[in-house]
Specification:
The structure is a single chain. The chain is mainly β. 8% of the residues lie in helices and 64% in strands.
């Protein structure tokens, strides 16, 4: 309500201060508003922390439990016992004479075959098939086709036309016109053109015409033959085999009658003791809490900054000549001090904290052996091992026949037998040679059009005639009496159809002549000549070879002692021994449970100057907006809640007006049903509902004035006690807006 009063007072002050000034160059039918622009204030919420957040700490002491733990007091080990080797006697065979081979000769064989041999290759003989010629008629153009032009003269005719010999004029009753006689040239025959024929030009040219086309004839070039000697193998080269026997020698061989072996000797393990430490008791940390400390303070918040406003002086000026004392008062821009509010606050000096002491502080100088215990354990220092003692092998010497050089064969070459025969060989095959026959030509004469016929345009000037007519020199100046023009009918010659040319085609002159052309080109015909064969006898040898005959080895049976199972050791496991000790274990260390006490804030609303006022200007205002404009807002009976359709109406009609920077008044009315107090309250709530919706759309509340008039401004006769229809009551139940200020 305070903002509404400030806006209204600003409007009144502007009206008083500038009532005598009017806008320059106003347009008819336009509305204008001039006012000192008010300061635009917006409310801003400031959150002040009156008590800070801090922590409350609670110590939960450490918890312990007792556990039993087994420790190894004697390590597991192994002892060894020897398992002796096992032997047996085996029979084995010794080769006293190794297996060998001897060679046996397999005699060769001779076969005689008959073979055909080509003594002369097959070839082709060529014979010429001469070309075929035919005589054909062909036409030669002796005179090219041309065109001749004949002139079609223009057609002239006569027509009647009117020539104005005296122009239409005006005669005046008071001042007669002045006339004079002038000589004027009139076209009695229009200019036209006629065509004159320019004949074509011809000349005689000499041209060479082919009367017998060029052709070809073929001439056979015979094949070339020669005789050469060919050596034919009638018996191929071969070889015979001669056996070289194997060579033998006797050598001594040592045979093992008892294999080398080993026996094992056990070296026992060595034992010792060692002392080990373990964690006998665990200690938790000791925690102590130091609570948070606070101090008192305060904070000053400026809820409205310092500003100024225009004010009128209490007394008029001494030398005021106006009857209205308000015209002579001084306008002062008076300071308005800022408004502050003091908020008491609590400030956190030091937050709560925890002091931690290690669990082993009970020990002397916090020694590392705090809570430690010891025990003795027997361990193997050197494990049991075995020592291997070698037993050498027993051998015996025997004699053995060994093949030093295996049997081989020696090849003796037998040369081939050849025979010389004669053979005819084609050196170069038969071909054809092309002999060109030149074409036969003949010179003929024919007439050729060099320049085609054209037409030349000859200008014929127009024919004119001088006639006399009366022309008005000085027009009349008073009442005009029309005098019709005087015309005269004359004849003149005009072109009905312009001259043209007619093209006459002159056919070309041709002459029929004969010439010989090659119908079928010359070719060659190939005649196959078969190859000549000669039969000769040929001996084919199968060479002799050798067959390997195996000679088995000679063996002697002997006995020897063999170790079937080698000596081994059997491991005897010595189990480990354990003992149980008690120890104290930390189940959970001392900890601090932290609870955060949130900060206490207080919200203070302060006014912030958004736009500085104090400027004066004229602004055009839509005349329709200066008066009240209806909003099609349908309120439910007794309700002040906007429907979705009503919000769309405000968005479409009222929001665009406010976005132009003006201030508006929202006025809401009710019908006469109900009490006056309840109707005024309902109308105010409806106007405020529209205002709240506009603020939610980003419109500053300082630019909106909401008024509820209840049933005080009825638009029809439907007052209290008058019977009306629902439609008539609906006309009174309305919401309106108007522009009250334009910046």
């Amino acid at each position: 309500m305070k903002k509404v009063l400030l806006t209204f007072l600003s409007f009144v002050v502007c009206t008083i201060a500038f009532a005598q000034d009017l806008p320059t160059n106003p347009e008819p039918g336009k509305c204008y508003k001039r006012c000192v622009t008010p300061d635009v204030w917006v409310n801003q919420d400031v959150t002040v922390q009156v008590a800070p957040a801090y922590k409350k700490l609670k110590v939960v002491p450490a918890q312990y439990r007792t556990e039993n733990e087994e420790f190894v007091v004697q390590s597991a080990g192994q002892e060894l016992s020897v398992v002796p080797a096992q032997y047996e006697t085996q029979t084995f065979e010794v080769v006293t004479q190794e297996a060998s081979q001897r060679l046996e000769k397999v005699a060769g064989s001779t076969n005689t075959t008959t073979e055909e041999m080509m003594t002369q290759q097959g070839y082709q003989e060529l014979s010429v098939v001469p070309a075929k010629y035919a005589t054909e008629n062909f036409e030669i153009v002796s005179n090219d086709a041309a065109q001749s032009l004949s002139v079609i003269p223009a057609k002239l005719g006569s027509e009647s036309f009117e020539v104005v010999v005296q122009e239409a004029s005006q005669r005046l009753e008071v001042v007669p016109a002045k006339y004079e006689t002038r000589t004027e040239t009139v076209v009695v025959q229009a200019a036209y053109t006629k065509l004159e024929t320019v004949p074509a030009q011809y000349e005689t040219r000499t041209e060479t015409v082919v009367v017998n086309s060029g052709g070809q004839r073929l001439e056979v070039v015979p094949a070339k033959w020669t005789t050469e000697n060919v050596e034919v193998t009638v018996q191929p080269a071969s070889s015979r085999v001669e056996i070289v026997p194997a060579k033998y020698a006797t050598e001594n061989v040592e045979v093992v009658v008892q294999n080398a072996s080993q026996r094992l000797e056990v070296i026992p393990a060595k034992w010792g003791t060692e002392t080990l430490s373990y964690k006998k008791q665990e200690f938790g940390s000791t925690l102590s809490v130091v609570p948070a400390k606070f101090t008192s303070g305060y904070q000053t918040i400026e809820v409205k900054p310092a500003t100024a406003k225009w004010g009128m002086s209490d007394t008029p000026a001494v030398d005021c000549q106006s009857n209205d004392p308000n015209d002579c008062r001084y306008w002062c821009y008076k300071n308005i001090p800022a408004q502050n509010i003091t908020v008491n606050t609590t400030e956190l000096a030091t937050d709560a904290q925890v002091i931690t002491k290690p669990g082993c502080d009970q020990g002397e100088n916090n020694a590392e052996d705090c809570g430690m215990g010891t025990y003795t354990r027997r361990v193997v220092q050197t494990p049991a091992t075995t020592r291997v003692i070698e037993i050498p092998a027993v051998t015996k010497t025997v004699k053995k026949t060994v093949m030093v050089t295996p049997p081989t064969t020696r090849v003796i070459e037998i040369p081939a037998i050849t025979k010389t025969i004669k053979k005819t060989v084609l050196v170069s095959p038969a071909t054809t040679r092309v002999i060109d026959i030149p074409a036969v030509t003949k010179e003929v004469k024919r007439t050729v059009m060099v320049t085609p016929p054209t037409s030349r345009v000859i200008e014929i000037p127009a024919v004119t005639k001088e006639v006399q007519r009366t022309v008005m020199v000085t027009p009349p100046t008073t009442r005009v009496i029309e005098i019709p023009a005087v015309t005269k009918t004359m004849k003149r010659t005009v072109v009905l159809e312009p001259a043209t040319t007619r093209v006459t085609e002159i056919p070309q002159v041709t002459a029929t002549m004969k010439r010989t052309v090659m119908a079928t080109p010359p070719t060659t015909r190939a005649t196959d000549v078969p190859a000549k064969m000669t039969t000769i006898q040929k001996t084919i040898l199968t060479p002799e070879s050798t067959r390997v005959v195996e000679i088995p080895a000679t063996t002697t049976t002997m006995k020897r002692t063999v170790m079937v199972t080698p000596p081994t050791t059997r491991v005897i496991e010595v189990p480990q021994k354990t003992a149980t000790y008690k120890k104290t274990v930390l189940a959970s260390d001392a900890r601090v449970e932290e609870v955060t006490v949130p900060a206490v804030n207080k919200t203070v609303t302060k006014e912030v100057l958004q736009t500085k006022g104090g400027l004066t200007s004229w602004a055009e205002v839509d005349c329709k907006l200066v008066a009240y404009n209806d909003l099609n807002v349908n309120w439910e009976l007794g309700s002040a809640t906007l429907t979705a359709a009503s919000k769309r109406e405000i968005d479409a009609k009222l929001l665009p007006v406010l976005q132009n920077g003006v201030s508006v008044e929202i006025a809401s009315h009710t019908d006469s049903r109900g009490s006056k107090e309840s109707n005024r309250s309902l109308s105010e709530r409806r106007a405020q509902a529209v205002t709240n919706y506009l603020i939610s759309k980003g419109i500053n509340s300082s630019r909106i004035v909401s008024n509820g008039f209840g049933e005080t401004r009825l638009t029809n006769r439907c007052s209290d006690g008058v019977s009306c229809t629902e439609r008539e009551h609906l006309a009174n139940r309305r919401t309106q807006f108007r522009v009250i200020d334009a910046e």
